[in-house]
Amino acid sequence: MHSKDPYRITEDTILAAPTTFKERIKHLGPSLILSAAIVGSGELIATTTLGARAGFTAFWVILLGCLIKVLVQVEFAKHTILTGNTPMKSLNELPGRKFGKAHWSVWFVLFIMLTKLIQVGGIIGGVAIILNMLFPQIDLMIFAFGMAVLVAALVYRGYYHFIEKTSIWLIAFFTIFTFTSLYFLKYTPYAISFSQVLSGLTFELPAAHLVAVFGAFGITGVGGDEIIYYNYWCLEKGYAANTGPKEASIDWQTRAKGWIKVMELDAIFAMIIYTTVTAAFYLLGAAVLSNQDSLPEGYEMVEQLSKMYTLSLGEGARYFFYFGAFVVLFSTLFAALAAWTRQISDTFGQIGWIDFSDLKVRKKSIAILAWVIPMLWATFFMFMKVPVLMVLIGGVTGSALLFLVVYAVIYFRYYDTPAAFKPRRVYDMFLWLSILSIAVIGASGIWKAVF
Fold first, then answer.
1. What pTM did the predictor assign?
2. CB half-sphere exposure, 68, CA atoms < 13 A
C-alpha cells in the first residue's frame, strides 16, 4: 500500500482528474493486476481443456465470457469511486437480513471464497506439476508448499506499486509466450484456417461438453470474485481518494466524473488484454489438442498442454512451455493472493472480527493471511490432486458469485447513484444485456453441474 492510507478519503487526498486520453493513460494500473489474476487458471487450464473437448464450436462462449462482464465491473467500480466504500462495506449496506453485524451477502462471499480455495489449490498444483517434470527427483508436494511459501513471501510486504509492477512483467511475458506459439502454428499441420475460426462463432453449444463450457464461461474474463477484487485496486491506486469525500458540490462531481472516466479506460484496457490472450489459448487448444484427441486430466495436464507448443515450435520448445506455463499460473497465484488478503480482511471487518479501517490492524491482517491462504491452497491440492477438476469447480462457484455481484450492481445503479451520474439509455441497454447474459448462462451452468 501507499505510505498514506488509500482507504481513508479526506480533503487532503483530493487531486484533479486528467482530462486528456494521454494523461489518463498515465493513471492506469488496476487493470494490469486484474489481467494478471485472470490470465492463468481460466486461460491455460479451463480454456484449453474446453478447446480440446469441444473443438472450435465453443469459441464464441469464451469471447462472450470475456466481453459481457465488463459493464458490471465498471458499474461496481463507479459505486466505489463515488462512495469510497470497500466492496464488502458496499455489500454490507445493501437492504436485507443481517446475521450479527454482517449482511447475508457478506457471509455468502465468505462461503464462496472458502470453496474457491479448491480452485486455486488446483492452480498451485499445476505449478508444482511443472516443476516436478523438470526436477522429478523432488517430491511434488515439496514444490506445492514451496510455491506457497514463495508467493506468500512476495505478497507479505507487497505494497500496491510492487504488485502493479510485478503484474506488468508477468503479463508481458505470458502474452509474448502465447502469441509466439500461435504464430508458429501456421507452419505445422495444425494451422488454423479462417473457416475454422468462423465455425466457432455460430452460437452453437456442444451438448456433450456443457459443464466444461459453463465452467470456462464462469472462469474466463472477469468473474464475480475479480469484479470484487478490482475495487480494492481502484481504491489503492487512488481513484476514490483523489475524488475526495462525497458531497453535492460541482467541483466534487467534476472530479468524480473525471476519475470514473480513467477507471472506464482502465477496465477496457484490461478487457483487451485478457480477451486477446484468452482467444489465443482457446484456439491453440482447439487446433492442437482436439486434433490429437488429447484431453488434459490430472497429473498429465501439463504434459498434454505442452503439445500445443512442441507441435508448433518443435520438441525443443518443451522447456520454453514449462517456463511459460509456470509464469502464467504463478501470475494468478500472485495477483489472487494479493486480492484475497484484502478481501478477506475486509470481510472480517464487516463481520466485526477486526477493525479494517485501522491501517495497522489492516496491514497485520493482510500479512497473516498472506501466509495462511497459500498454505491452505497447497493443502487442498495435497488431498485432492486433480487440478483440472479443482479449477472447474472454482469456475462454477464463480458463476454463483456473479449473481450476487449482479444483484448489488442493480441496486447501486437504481437506488444509490446520484442524479448527476445517471447513465444514458444506451449504457443501460448494454448493462442489462450484460446482466441478462450472465444470468442465463450462469444459471444454465449451475443447473447442468448440479443436475
1. 0.90
2. 22
